[in-house]
Design brief:
- By secondary structure, this protein is α/β, with parallel strands linked by helices.
- It contains twelve helices and 14 strands.
- The strands form four sheets. Strands 3-2-1-4-5-8-12 form a seven-stranded parallel beta sheet, sandwiched between helices. It has a three-stranded mixed beta sheet with strand order 9-11-13. A two-stranded antiparallel sheet has the order 6-7.
- Strand 6 and strand 7 form a beta hairpin.
- The chain is globular.
- The N and C termini lie far apart (about 45 Å).
- The structure holds sulfoquinovose-uridine-C1,5'-diphosphate.
């Protein structure tokens, strides 16, 4: 396949680009370094300094003989994206090119506006560049489980059958997100569904939960190929943050009561899921929605796991419930279906103590680079 990875410099984008290249596909990674720029502006740089995309592609080539082509540019600029798509003629576009931080999107007007314009603008441009250049191309779009929020009923995979006054129809499952960032993903889904209905696009929308990990088959070839691993309050996801906090001797920052339940997955499983989706594309005129996570935990359960593993490794780990900077339910029902990817062949890598311990070992090498001022939440929802 000819695969374009939009957002190819990101936490998921770079491992995905390497993974598809290692599997023998022709890969083009596209990025405008927006995340690096926001990280600089918000004092939220990743734990491990990562070389530029061109440098990483060069190192990957030296290690494996495989190629990741690179284009630096802004997918929100239609002239740029359209010309890249026209030249490359992708079979699959993996669309990660969005501002991915919920806290950043809630910081103020400028940050909210930028998130809205960028995320919707890129999705819109992806749709039109596919329509104009390669209408059969399969768009694999990264959505989020956060689109559904935390409803008091079971969460289906994207769609729900509604019976009303004796008549039935299948609708997109109701969405009610908890941040402006997550809301842009809801709007993306609607936009894609509109163009699927009217123009027959083929789209897979992946409802992904928070990801953890810093190790993949390809990134393990060199420390310079590691994904950008964030532990700050802006880009760091909760498991990655807790592990760094355990090492830094900062009490694990459980927001509020800690009963918030989410579906989690290992970075390795993100790669598997995206590959499975790309290998069996959605049909023409189909919006296929897949819930992408492997197991559910409360924040308290995560903290207890990290505490147990850290203590067993000689770390002094403490847990502290702090005021929740977000507006979210802290105790709630949560039962999200996630069968489709398993049926397609996903073999989950679960969050065992061994997996967490291996992450601790890896992060320990970078202990001196941890800057504790980046850990406590600096953005409040109110
Ligand atoms: N949390 C804490 N303490 C922390 C950090 C987070 O208790 O130090 C809590 C949050 O309040 C939330 C849960 O842990 O209830 C998950 O937070 P998170 O920061 O790991 O995840 P979130 O902000 O929702 O966003 C992340 C990614 C985003 C992706 C999303 C999937 O940054 O790009 O879309 O995970 S999901 O959460 O399923 O929507």
């Amino acid at each position: 396949m000819k695969v374009m990875v939009l957002g190819g410099d990101g936490y998921l984008g770079w491992p995905t680009a390497m993974h598809f290249s290692a599997k023998g596909h022709t890969v083009l990674a596209v990025d405008n370094y927006q995340r690096r720029q926001i990280a600089l502006e918000t004092d939220s740089e990743a734990l491990i300094a990562t070389p530029t995309l061109d440098e990483r592609a060069q190192i990957f080539h030296e290690k494996t003989g495989k190629t990741v082509q690179v284009k630096i540019g802004d997918c929100a600029d239609m002239l740029f994206l359209n010309s890249v798509v026209a030249d490359f003629q992708p079979d699959t576009i993996i669309h990660y090119a969005e501002q991915p931080s919920a806290p950043y999107s809630m910081k103020g007007f400028h940050e909210a506006q930028m998130t809205l314009k960028n995320n919707l603008g890129v999705t819109f441009n992806v749709i039109w560049s596919v329509l104009q250049n390669c209408p059969d191309c399969h768009i694999v779009k990264l959505g989020t489980m956060g689109e559904y929020g935390t409803p008091n009923i079971d969460i289906e995979e994207g769609w729900i059958d509604i019976e009303h006054n004796g008549r039935k129809q299948k609708f997109l499952y109701p969405r009610q997100a908890g941040s402006l960032y997550h809301t842009t993903k809801v709007l993306d889904t609607d936009l894609l569904w509109f163009y699927v209905r009217t123009h027959g696009l083929r789209v897979t929308d992946l409802m992904q939960g928070p990801v953890y990990g810093l190790s993949t088959e390809e990134s393990d070839l060199s420390d310079q190929l590691l994904p950008n691993f964030h532990y700050d309050d802006i880009f760091g996801t909760v498991v990655n943050r807790f592990l760094v906090q355990a090492i830094a001797g900062v009490p694990l920052t459980v927001y509020g009561k800690g009963g918030q339940t989410r579906g989690y997955l290992n970075l390795i499983d993100t790669l598997q899921c995206v590959e499975l989706a790309a290998k069996s594309p959605a049909d023409t005129g189909e919006l296929r929605v897949l819930n992408q996570f492997t197991e559910q935990f409360t924040v308290n359960e995560l903290a207890e796991r990290v505490h147990r593993v850290g203590q067993s490794m000689g770390l002094n780990v403490q847990i502290k419930n702090i005021d929740n900077p977000r507006k979210e339910m802290e105790e709630h029902y949560y039962n999200a279906k996630h069968h489709a990817l398993i049926d397609m062949g996903l073999e989950p890598h679960y969050m065992t103590d061994e997996v967490l311990a291996a992450m601790v070992e890896k992060i320990l090498k970078y202990k001196d680079r941890i800057e504790t001022r980046k850990i406590m939440p600096r953005v409040s929802w109110s």
